[in-house]
Structure formats: structure tokens, C-alpha cells
Structures
1.
Amino acid sequence: MFGNMELPGDFQFDFKQKRALVTGAGKGIGREIATMLHRFNARVIALGRTEKDLESLKEQIGCETILAELEDANATRQAAERAGKVDLLVNNAAIAILEPFLKATVAAWDKTMAVNLRAVMIISQVVANQMIERGVSGSIVNVSSMSSFQALPDHSAYAASKAGLDQLTAVMAVELGKHRIRVNSVNPTVVLTDMGKRAWSDPAKGGPMLARIPLRRFAECEDIASVVCFILTDGAAMLNGLALRIDGGFLVT
């Protein structure tokens, strides 16, 4: 999308060998973010829970890989510590266990909060602390969801985790700003990952959602990755504490 894009002044879209940790990097949005960061010269550390996916990504872009299950708090902290020095962090890993509210289970709720929210806190703490120790101007992007703003049936745990993530992002932005660490979240609409295609390809389900998007299409992984990469750059130096909708105009209709 960006090609050899140059922005005004001396800024160029080049991460200049900065080390970027991407969670949930094996598939979908996370894989596209990792690939795009590599394209713009970042040194990528890909964290995921499926060894096969990480190995194929390593073959593709030559990244470092960390295998971890983010539902486990101790494993999450150890994984973040293994990543070493990090300049850029993308908290992308998430799960969606869809259940009607009246039948929602404690097990599904706890697992969702552990992966989608608690893991972000743990990883960001580890990374932010070492950024502060090194005196670097870091950038963190949390991948949230439009469901933080728009209620959807069967999404009680998922939506609550993403709304919590947006508020966590805001608090992190307030507290870490004095250390020159920016924190933002992005909030995509439906994204056509393999899982997204399966979930929303039924016209009865996807049609009404699509009809509310003025651009008349769902997002592709590249649409999200390009925005994430821009927010990570110095060209977005005054963006902090955002919950940025990437929804094609859904919420203005």
C-alpha cells in the first residue's frame, strides 16, 4: 500500500532495523503486520501459539519466533522477557468465543479476558519497563475491535475485553507518555481473515453489516496492517491514546 512512500520533511517510512514484537503473528492480521513491518526494514519478533505458523513466517521473512500460550500468565511474562530489547510492540493476539449472553460460560469469559486483556497488560509492562530503562521513544499499538463501540449478538465476552483494552490503552498512554512511549489502539470492522470469511460469508449474517458500511466492503488484513505500521512510525509522533476506528464509515451511518 505504501510502496516507497515519503511524508513531508525528513520523515521516511522506514523502521531502520528497529526491533518489533508482534503477538498473534502466525495468522491473519498479525501475520500481515509482521510481514509489512519486515518490508519496511523492521527486525520482527513473531510471537504465536502454533509452531507451524511461526516456522512458515520465519521462512518467509526471516523473523525471530517465540512460541507461547498467552492464556497462561507466567508463560506470557516469560515470552515477553525472551523477546529482549523491543522498540515497537503490537499486541494483536486475541480469541473470540461467541456465546449468547444468557448461556455465556465463566470458562469462556475467563479465557477471553486472559488472552485479550491480561496478556496485553503483562507483555506491555515488560516491554515498557525495558524501553524506559533504555531511554527509547517507543510505540505500542493494541489491536482492538469495532465491537468496543458497537454491540453485537453473542459477543459479550469479546466486546467487553475489547472495551477494556481501549481503556487500558488510554491509561497506558497517560502514564507512559512522560517516558516518550506512545500507546494507541486500532478498532477494525470485520476483517476478511480465513476466520472472518467463515464467520461473515453468510449473506443473512454479513449482509446487514455490510449494508451499513459506506465503502460497501469489509476490511482486508492489509487495511489494518498499513494503519498499524503508520501509527508505529515517527510520522505519527503526536498520536497518543487513540481508539482509531478502521470501519469504512460504519459508525457514522
Note: Strands lie at 19-23, 43-48, 64-67, 88-91, 139-143, 182-188, 243-246.
2.
Amino acid sequence: MSGLAHRFRKISRKLEIPDELKLYCARHTFGTLPMAETRDPGLVEEVMGHASLITTMGDLHRETAPIKAVVDRLNQLKVNDRFDQQKVH
């Protein structure tokens, strides 16, 4: 464990922050939020200081909200289509 990680853990325990919260969680969030907004992996890679896009992508949390929105929209279209067909018959 690095010196910084050790200090973080010591302070976290004093503040009763769960051990599951790791120092790198902040780094992952730092990469994930700009990626969600910019959709520019090269820029996120550069800002995070990575030499490889593979490293950057490994640090990002997957955002499922856009996929859920697509599925919800398509499901709503199907419901509306069925409703419209029932009105015709």
C-alpha cells in the first residue's frame, strides 16, 4: 500500500468510512464523469495521464442509464403502437 493510500485508509477509519471505499474510487469517478459528458476517450486518457486508452477504459465505470433510456423509449413505442392498432380495429 502506498503512503498516500495508507494515510487515506487511516483517515477514513477515523471518519468511519467503509474500507470498501478505496482511494482510486475518486480517480475512477474523475474519469467516468467527463467521459459521460464529452464522449471523448482520447481527451479523458490525456487528462488522466494514461499512456494507453485500454488503461483509461479500464478505469471508467460503465454508465447504464443511456442504455436504459433506449430500452424504455423502444418499449414505450411498442406500447403506443399496440394502443394505436387496437384503436383501428
Note: The two ends are 69 Å apart (CA to CA).
